[in-house]
Amino acid sequence: MNLPRKIFKNTGIIIAGQFITKVIGLAVTVYLARYLGGENFGVYNLIFSFIGFFAIISKFGMDDILVRDIARDKGRAAILLGNAIVMKSCLTLLAIMACIASVWMLHYPLPTAKLITVTSVYLAFLTFSQMYETIFKANLAMEYPTGVNVFGGLLLSGLIFVGILLKMSLTYFVLVFAFYLIPGLIFLIYISGKLVRPDFRVDLKVWRYLFRESWPLIMMSLFVITNNRIDVLFLSKMRTELDIGYYAAAYRLTEALGVIPMAVSVSVYPLLSQYYHSQRDSFHRVYQFSMKYIIILAVPLAIGGTILAAPIIDFLYGSKYAPSAGALAILCVTEATIFISYIQTQGFIAINRQKINTLIMGLMTILSVGFNIALIPRFNFIGSSITTLISQGFGLMLGFYFMNKFVGDLKFTLWPVLLSGVLMGLGIYWIDLQVIARIAIGIVIYVAGLYFFKGINSQDRDLIAKIFRKN
Fold first, then answer.
1. Same domain (yes/no): 193, 220
2. Angle (CA) 162 177 180, round 5°
3. Which residue, among 217, 128, 160, has the nearest Cα to 29 in the 3D structure?
4. What is the 3-state secondary structure (H, E, C) of 233-246?
5. Within a domain: residue 210?
6. Going residue by residue through the chain (471 aa), what tens digit of pLDDT does each one get?
């Protein structure tokens, strides 16, 4: 198989795998939330949000460095991987100890503290699963880890549905999530041996190199995780587990949509990287095209999600989660800004300005901490939703400022997209049908509006064809 076809196959496998695992994860979330109820569902999400913070220590930003260096020099793969395994073993032990110490120092309720203590071992399974994936990423062989992820999702959903049928307690579901990665990890370790066998001889030069190269990435990871999960930890100390459950029911839905901008960026990023150094006019055209179409996807999410938040919550979770509707309406607008920011992030990397991403994320994190402290006591989990919107909106505006500074202004009109979105919103607001029917009708109105107002033109269609041919 030639290289372009191999890249296209690898990209397609990643997107398909992400889509399948997101769908499985969403189904598991909905059924588990219905079964556990708001309070226990809140505890469940608190446990893994808390543990997730310490993944920063165990991962140490090393995975992307391994992918890059193994792809560049297969001859060094064995020594790099072997030393990384030893390093990550030490870091994972440190992360687990820090997690356990922190949960007891923060005086969480005894049952919650015990569950976090036991399930902190999840950090080891997560860290090494992701690290062994780097071997397949570097060799453009993502069918193996993607298959493992899909299998893991099916295994997790099966065990959870069995637990629901058997009326198991919260402890069962927490332990299932903590240990379901084990079979996939064993398989990845076995099959990766056909590509590279780790050399476990300790090489301090490799250690120093990996630490030095990983520092910028660990800072970015720290900001990302803090910005994405600090709201849950603040809620856990300022409010109740029930409030966390309501909030988690909303943000789990919008998180699942993250596969959409990822799919778009996977398709356009190679062109952006190539054209910036060789054909600036083509770079501008591809970047503006990708921003235009991600906005086309983001507008109906923001408008439709805001209008249909309450019926969506009722349809998926039932009336007992009705308070989540307010958070979902705000988070749908937030997710729309994340869609656009995702393309910005890839754009900065393509023009060798990735430090701007770290700067923006650092400032967003400061805003997130400050506004959570100010708004949660007054507005509860709605305050967390507002904080997330403020933080992401600020990051988006700052991203536009820097991108316009280095690349230039975007040159396309938004009125056909916005007008189509408004018509869609009016349609789904006045139609009194089941939520699925309203969503379907909204899509038809929106697409028809784009066609009628010429939001999509022949040049766009030609560029879409070019991107797919390139990939």
1. no
2. 85
3. 160
4. HHHHHHCCHHHHHH
5. no
6. 444 455 555 556 666 767 777 788 888 889 999 999 999 999 999 999 899 888 888 777 777 777 767 766 777 878 888 888 898 899 999 999 999 999 999 999 999 999 999 999 999 999 888 888 877 776 666 678 888 888 888 899 999 999 999 999 999 999 999 999 999 999 988 888 888 788 888 888 888 888 887 776 677 777 877 777 788 889 988 999 999 999 999 998 998 888 788 777 766 766 776 677 677 777 787 788 788 888 999 999 999 999 999 999 999 999 999 999 999 999 999 999 999 998 888 788 777 777 788 889 889 999 999 999 999 999 999 999 999 999 999 999 999 898 888 777 666 678 889 999 999 999 999 988 899 999 999 999 998 998 888 777 666 556 555 555 554
Residues 38 and 95 in one domain: yes
Which stretches of 239-279 are DSSP H helices?
241-255, 259-278
**∠ CA 91-94-97 to the nearest 5 degrees?**
150
One-letter amino acid for residue 423 of the chain = L
Q: Is residue 324 within 8 Å of residue 246, measured between CB atoms? A: yes
φ, ψ dihedrals at 429, nearest 5°: -70, -40
Alpha helices in 166-238 (DSSP H): 170-179, 182-192, 204-238
The last residue of one of the domains, among 202, 225, 241, is 202
Q: How far is CA 301 from the centre of its chain?
A: 17
Q: Which of 111, 113, 142 is nearest to 8 (CA)?
A: 142
- Structure-token pair, residue 418: 């916005």
Are 384 and 247 contacting, i.e. CB atoms less than 8 angstroms apart?
yes
Q: How many CB atoms lie within 10 A of CB 378?
A: 8
Q: Which residues have C-beta within 8 Å of that of residue 243, sequence separation ≥ 6? A: 42, 235, 380, 381
Residue type, 369: V
The candidate with the shortest Cα–Cα distance to 64, out of 149, 141, 137, 129, is: 137
CB-based contact 189:135 (threshold 8 Å): no
From residue 144, give the alpha-carbon distance in Å to each of 75, 119, 137, 148: 22, 26, 10, 6
Does some domain include residue 211?
Answer: no
When divided into structural domains, the chain yields a total of 2
Domain residues for 423? 216-471
Calpha distance 355→361 (Å, rounded): 10
Separation between Cα atoms, residue 454 and residue 329, nearest integer Å: 29
Q: How far is CA 79 from CA 75, 196, 375, 466, in A?
A: 9, 10, 50, 40
